[in-house]
Amino acid sequence: MAEALRVGIAGLGTVGASVARVLRDKAAELTRQCGREVVVTAVSARDPKRDRGVDLGAAKWFEDPVAMAQTAEIDVFVELIGGDEGPSRSSVKAALEAGRHVVTANKALLAKHGVALAEIAERKGVLLNYEAAVAGGIPVIKTMREAMAGNSVTRVFGILNGTCNYILTRMEAEGLSFDDCLKDAQRLGYAEADPTFDIEGHDTAHKLSILTSLAFGTRIAANDIYMEGISNISQADIRAAGDLGYRIKLLGVAQRTESGIEQRVHPTMVPTASVIAQVHGVTNAVAIETDILGELLLSGPGAGGNATASAVVGDIADIAKSRPGFQHGPVFGLPAKELRPYKKAQMRSHAGGYFIRLTVHDRIGVFAAIAKRMADNEISLESIVQHAAGPDTALQKTVILVTHETTEAAVRRAVDGITRDDHLTDKPQVIRIERAE
Ligand SMILES: NC(=O)c1ccc[n+]([C@@H]2O[C@H](COP(=O)([O-])OP(=O)(O)OC[C@H]3O[C@@H](n4cnc5c(N)ncnc54)[C@H](OP(=O)(O)O)[C@@H]3O)[C@@H](O)[C@H]2O)c1
């Protein structure tokens, strides 16, 4: 049998401790599947005294993950520290430069430095595997990088943040407010004490930037992503969506258009009957549309120790199975040097249907003024519904408009015009409608 694969794990938190446990508990299966043993020979974390709930055997403790990355005592460096700078970046870079294979779950690091790190990995002829960085346990990277050769992707979109999907699911199912659902998510450990990163869309954007690069062969450009979070979604929106046959999801969408590639993260109305609308709670899903395959939807657990460890262990096993001297495939599907600068489509040119909810003074002429603003901007309406709004129903009304396909620029001009007309009693709400099967 070949020599054992020696693994060093940096970071022994939720994911790192789970990876160590799975490698220990499943050692016999992994040896059979890989044709060699996979052994944790080194570990690193901040606190050497903390009980990790797993027997780390004879693994050598490293205070400094960079020193562990460079030691000749490991073949694979597994980075599970997190963060886009500091020890995660310096240790991954050091490991690749030292000719070690790297496995990471760190989307923030890849979103910012993925291409530069891929260049080092490709130059050194080692693997940089990152299945767990996007949608946790769902094997989306492998699917896009390996199983879809020859396909041209037209759109990739998904529910990439379990916290947001959990909140939106409970808001719909139980009629609760955003704030109440967020508090519950924090109590149950689905949301961080500071939830901004998740609920304002940053986490989804990091994952989307990686999917965009794989889908379109572009350099990663996470800073360019149009982003809106879910904190301003209200019960009024959820109910109106339901009445109209839609469900609200926070989607990350990357799409090829005539004016470039759109990358956007925002609350989205999807048809209630579509497959992605059936993805509830903390579950993630990724839909990939291609010319050959049509639409593929992968769904499953997007976070948590075990689900994420499953993807990390799969990446380690791929390294254990790879033959010495074998030329590895490029990290992002194309050689890092060939990834093209990405041509950004302006959000104002986005084309699609729109849901617009207006709370207006109940007075003569308001309805006509709204209709005029729509017509002036060549927006054709699929439906327009008016009903009493809030506690002062005698004084204000809700007007809900659903447009046929139009552009973001036209909708913004129309809504700005309606706001200037001084008929609104509250901020207008605009939610984009996404086509989904
Ligand atoms: N949690 C998930 O469900 C999930 C899902 C997908 C991807 N990920 C990604 O996986 C990575 C790890 O996430 P996590 O949830 O496991 O984080 P975590 O529970 O906060 O664990 C982080 C670990 O890194 C260690 N660490 C921090 N600074 C260090 C340093 N300077 N040197 C060595 N070790 C250091 C910590 O040590 P101490 O324990 O001693 O403090 C801790 O063990 C992140 O990139 C995250 O985005 C997580």
UniProtKB/TrEMBL annotation:
Transmembrane segments: none
GO biological process: methionine biosynthetic process; threonine biosynthetic process
Family matches, as InterPro entries: ACT-like_dom_sf, ACT_dom, Asp/hSer_DH_NAD-bd, HDH, HDH_cat, HDH_CS, NAD(P)-bd_dom_sf
EC number: 1.1.1.3
Sequence positions that bind NADP(+): 10-17
Domain ACT: 355-437
Amino-acid positions noted as binding L-homoserine in the UniProt annotation, renumbered to this chain: 192
Coiled-coil regions listed: none
SUPFAM superfamilies the UniProt entry points to: ACT-like, Glyceraldehyde-3-phosphate dehydrogenase-like, C-terminal domain, NAD(P)-binding Rossmann-fold domains
Residues at which NADPH binds: 107
First-level EC class: oxidoreductase
Pfam families documented for this protein: ACT (PF01842), Homoserine_dh (PF00742), NAD_binding_3 (PF03447)
Entry-linked NCBIfam families: PRK06349.1
Protein name per the record: Homoserine dehydrogenase
Organism this protein belongs to: Mesorhizobium muleiense
